[in-house]
Write a structure and sequence with these properties.
The chain is mainly alpha-helical. The protein is built from four helices and no strands. The protein has helices spanning 3-19, 35-38, 43-67, 71-94. The radius of gyration is 15 Å and the shape is elongated.
Length: 99
């Protein structure tokens, strides 16, 4: 098992941790926020977003060896992953916030 698949497995474990309702301390920014700032977020939605991005990251790790070492493929996949990450950052700051 190569190292990249070990990272993928780690992200799958993180997704499971988020889905069972644990791992709030693993969310960057949330763990250092004050109680007032934490109350601004719907933690269930935030955990769901973190679980989804963890699964997508695991998938990205698994796809990299498959697409090979062709520069165009790697750049395209990386660009797509960056766009998806930006979308999830926006969702975490809009959809996961309490109204």
């Amino acid at each position: 098992m190569t190292m990249i698949y070990k990272f993928a497995a780690l992200f799958i474990v993180l997704a499971i941790i988020f889905l069972i309702g644990k791992g709030d301390k693993l969310i960057a920014g949330y763990n250092t926020a004050s109680e007032e700032e934490r109350n601004e977020f719907n933690i269930h939605r935030l955990r769901l977003l973190m679980a989804i991005i963890s699964v997508l990251t695991a998938g990205f790790c698994c796809i990299l060896p498959i697409i090979g070492k062709e520069k165009e493929n790697v750049v395209g996949a990386t660009f797509a992953f960056i766009i998806v990450t930006f979308v999830f950052v926006i969702l975490a700051n809009t959809w996961a916030k309490k109204k």
